[in-house]
């Protein structure tokens, strides 16, 4: 095959341009010059280079997280900067990243802050302004930022491999923590509206919804219905029976809610038949007393639901553990938690002298209560790090999607994670069998990790006739750091026909666990309503011999399948 001299020259110039571009950081304003006598100006030359790069498989790896132009639409812009979606920044760069008013992106890490405005030629770094040639950009409904700008100011190295068409971003910082010593969501516009549970035992629902609302801020500002969560769930309890975050998870992950407060006001009367206004697809349970992880969750995602033992009953109560002058609370004793609140910040230097009694040291979480604005500092108070119960039970919402994400959820566990099942070992296979109600494509599975560092494998056994062929359809695998509920997307969709029976199989390995599978069952000392006729579940210790759990264990498995029309 023959090539013209002009074509060869163009190719050489293209390679030289890319090498010049990525041998040095180009995120701050810099004009691309002429190369070896080329007559094209940069505004003409750069789009040609970008087109060449984008026309091939393009990859950027950020601290072992890999993104491509096939899955996350990373791309090179006409300024020769690699642009990454805003929604991957928080995980890839391990930072706080939030969009305000669809216009301003605020990124925080350590004590540093970066602010980028849509299409602005400037970036604010700790309130000092710098010029950039690429900045926050919107393409359709998605926002993108230059990876090199983030790398430079968040302490990462950036390198480019021209032959592989991929960039490598590695954390070069020696900092041990991404957190400042003080942080308050109220100052960031990310604290939820204060709720008032009145004389009802709905603190669990109020705290859960406050945490959920906070996770949506500042991008989405909504008030969700405490009445609906506490009354229109699968448990059949009254508002005076109390509850906990596992009940909230069951309600939300089964798409029974949430609904808006305006559609079901807090009046003690539930409104049945309402559809959820969003789909909760992931929530993480943070390990007991891991204050560093709790703070990171607040910093990155929003308010964290937690529990305390409260000797206060309402905004007017008195307690030996509460300093009304400083709004500071600390209980030290053997009583178990009886009240849920949300953590909206912390102050490592909050003086121990603000609390009643003698404490070992300073430091407090900034917490929001559900007793109206009359309590504490407009509904907010400080709970000492030395409080017996603060930080034992912790939940944060980490993935909330629109109601258009999937068309159908197949499930049999409306009461969710009530107990756990296993073979006295750290590994178990579980499978739920469902019947497709129309022609669909299965796209994801949902399940609980009952402990940290859980590894999973997901399989689909189609046209199920009583046996599981796990070698036929592996569709997903991975690992999660924390306990919680997770939705796992399949590597490829699996088509099912109307009336076809299919099995969703999950192999779960949870270190040091004897019962790693979450189940729904009816405890003898409880009054929750569990329907064992709505599921067909199986467990196995090896993936070969299986038992039907509704018959042998009187329970349902917490394994869901998500499907869309095809």
Can you tell me about this structure?
A hairpin with a 4-residue loop joins strand 12 and strand 13 (166-171). It contains nine helices and 35 strands. It is of the alpha+beta class and 566 residues long.
Strand content: 25-35%
Overall structural class, as computed from helix and strand content, comes to: alpha+beta
Q: Could you give a short account of the major beta sheet?
A: 13 strands, mixed
Q: What shape does the CA trace take?
A: globular
Low-confidence stretches: 1-10, 22-38
Q: Roughly how many Å apart are the termini?
A: 44 Å
Structure described in brief:
This protein has 566 residues and is of the alpha+beta class. The protein is built from 9 helices and 35 strands. The longest helix is centred in the first third of the chain and has 18 residues.
Topology:
Blueprint (H helix, E strand, L loop, with lengths): L4 H18 L19 H13 L4 E4 L2 E4 L6 E2 L5 E4 L3 H4 L3 E5 L3 E6 L2 E6 L4 E4 L2 E4 L5 E3 L2 E5 H7 L2 E6 L4 E6 L10 E3 L18 H14 L9 H6 L13 H9 L25 E7 L5 H10 L3 E5 L13 E2 L4 E2 L9 E9 L16 E5 L11 E5 L9 E8 L6 E3 L8 E3 L5 E9 L4 E10 L4 E8 L12 E7 L2 E14 L4 E9 L7 E4 L16 E4 L6 E2 H4 L3 E2 L1 E7 L1
Parallel strand pairs: 1-13, 18-21
Antiparallel strand pairs: 1-2, 3-4, 4-11, 5-6, 6-7, 7-8, 8-9, 10-11, 12-13, 14-19, 15-22, 15-29, 16-19, 16-22, 17-18, 19-20, 20-21, 23-35, 24-31, 25-30, 25-32, 26-29, 26-35, 27-28, 27-30, 31-34, 32-33
